[in-house]
């Protein structure tokens, strides 16, 4: 009921604020459109818009392009990790971390668990599977040579041209002859590390970092130094520059856009400085751009590669998170190392499947990709905000979580007294799989953190698993 004693827009804003406080409007929930609210309440559009803008100014709701207004969650964001990376000794990964990674991967593969943190979207909500299937069938019928002829490097020219065209959205100016097609982004990262380092070398990794880089470095005989990475400012470039100036690392691996597991991006000036450091100290930076096209805001922020002058930045990406994980089609642009990378790709796996690469090229050329990405960004922005709201309601007081700027991953910090490794064990006993924070650090840091994912439909079963996880975390206190 609106209060006649104050302006109508203030009365409406107060009513909506109370609905958020008592849970009738949950975090992540979409508000009625301005037009709908005006019609249902007999108010003017300007009155409703003024109320929504007042709530937005107080940080209670947020406007999403082409989607409307949504209730913001109240979860605070975690602080930056505190440790002196520049004084850390280069070392191999802790055996406990490697063992835990193996355990988590086994749990994620089990059909008997519901996974709350696996970064693998599933289903038609996130991939244009039917359209790609029709493209593959049509191409196989019209061009049978794609199945019968050997596909020699460098592979589909159409796809490589389309990669370069879409890379312009990330401010990269690339040439098709310099694009190397790979078996997903992980193969690209592996090739980059094998090309620019050798056994016994040291690499700088963000902390936290993508956990699969840790066993990869171990198997390549590499040591690591962790560089603190802040959800808002990204990798500490002051710490990194000290390491570079002292010649303590032979390569850097970073994810400046839509970081895994943080879900946030380094500011543009930081990416520019990262590329400048690579060129100044002549140390390669391997940029993981896997999620870069899933930034929520447009125009998209540039990659670090966009600022590369002399070819010291190697950019790696794939279409496994945006189009077709089963195709396993990735790509890289190797800068000054492209010839060695081409040779390594040829002697490792020769090339990628011609039919699948050509199908992706046709899809990208048709304009379908841009439309698909727009819808996917809106979907993930809503999914992540709803996930934050569910965490806010289910997890113990003191829980914190990042506020992602893209993708579908969330980095959650549990209150003091919680242990994410014990939480993994107790949750697994209930048929729930999560990814403990320790996996994202070669040194086993982040024992109060977990990564959660918003790339699944929020079914009743999924929501119940999240509620159960929050209850298990509360029991530790």
From TrEMBL:
Q: Name one GO molecular function term.
A: transaminase activity
**What keywords does the record list, in alphabetical order?**
Aminotransferase, DNA-binding, Pyridoxal phosphate, Transcription, Transcription regulation, Transferase
Do you know which InterPro entries this protein is assigned to? Aminotransferase_I/II_large, HTH_trans_reg/aminotransferase, PyrdxlP-dep_Trfase, PyrdxlP-dep_Trfase_major, PyrdxlP-dep_Trfase_small, Tscrpt_reg_HTH_GntR, WH-like_DNA-bd_sf, WH_DNA-bd_sf
**Transcription recorded as keyword:** yes
Q: Where is the HTH gntR-type domain?
A: 6-74
What CDD domains does the record tag this protein with?
AAT_like (cd00609), WHTH_GntR (cd07377)
- Reading the lineage from the top rank, the first entry is Bacteria
- Protein family according to the UniProt entry: In the C-terminal section; belongs to the class-I pyridoxal-phosphate-dependent aminotransferase family.
Write the protein's name: Aminotransferase class I/II-fold pyridoxal phosphate-dependent enzyme
Its organism's taxonomic lineage begins at: Bacteria, Pseudomonadati, Pseudomonadota, Betaproteobacteria, Rhodocyclales
